[in-house]
Design goal:
The chain is of the alpha/beta class. It folds into 2 domains: 117 residues, Response regulator (Rossmann fold); 110 residues, Arc Repressor Mutant, subunit A (Orthogonal Bundle). The longest helix has 14 residues. The chain starts with a strand and ends with a strand. The relative contact order is 0.13. The C terminus is likely disordered.
Length: 238
């Protein structure tokens, strides 16, 4: 998933961005409101983390303009203000939730997961296609009884493919949701990571789940039928 982070405190911004990347998110960061609004307008984000106090344009105005542009990505506001009126103002501006500074990073991650969950009716605890199971809480995967060791970026790519199982996922879509603005869309990095995943997921297996649709993109599907991800019985309704 791809996150936009707007925070003017460089040390805090870099710390949050590092933590999000370690949690398998792709992150674009902005030091001011004008940059944040520009990035939100030109990229598709799964969630936006927006500090209220920003130079150029404050977070409340950025939030209002994002909503005026018809951008529906969930917005989590960061605020040092604990007054109820300030929180109400943020929510009225179009924010979905807020975290008061100082905050525990684990809480920030939990609130982000909750915001993304609200975009659908179900938060899958596990997604499965054939005998491949992806644990979205532990960021782990196994095929049959075999545990699969994944880097954070490999996991992010695999989760995106599994969430869209049964349909072709284009390179542009992968670039938009799995990589950040630092990625060169003309490089072969996506092909390299898909190749790595194919070796880890399909290597030594009788049935391959990942296929390449030349000139279009990639698809992860079960043999023949290619169903959508199966929701685990442990799934939690939001």
């Amino acid at each position: 998933m791809r996150i936009l982070l707007a925070e003017d405190d460089r040390q805090l911004r870099e710390s949050i961005a590092r933590g999000l990347r370690e949690a398998s998110y792709a992150v674009d960061d902005a030091p001011d409101g004008a940059r944040a609004l520009f990035l939100a307008a030109v990229n598709e984000y799964d969630a936006i983390v927006l500090d209220i106090v920003l130079p150029e344009m404050d977070g409340l105005e950025v939030c209002r303009q994002i909503r005026r542009k018809g951008i529906h990505a969930p917005i989590l506001m960061l605020t040092a203000r604990d007054a109820v009126d300030d929180k109400i103002t943020g929510l009225d501006a179009g924010a979905d939730d807020y975290v008061t500074k100082p905050f525990d990073f684990g809480e920030l991650l939990a609130r982000l997961r909750a915001l993304v969950r609200r975009r659908g009716d179900v938060l899958p605890a596990a997604l499965s296609v054939a005998d491949l199971v992806v644990d979205t809480r532990r960021h782990s995967a196994r095929r049959g009884n075999r545990e699969i060791s994944l880097t954070t970026k490999e996991y992010a790519l695999l989760e995106h493919l599994v969430r869209n199982a049964g349909r072709i996922v284009t390179r542009a879509e992968i670039n938009a949701h799995v990589w950040d603005d630092n990625h060169d869309p003309f490089s072969n990095l996506i092909d390299v990571y898909v190749s790595r995943l194919r070796r880890k997921i399909d290597g030594g297996e009788r049935v391959a789940l990942i296929s390449t649709r030349r000139g279009v993109g990639y698809m992860l599907s079960a043999p023949a039928a290619g169903p959508s991800p199966v929701v685990s019985s442990r799934d939690v309704r939001g």
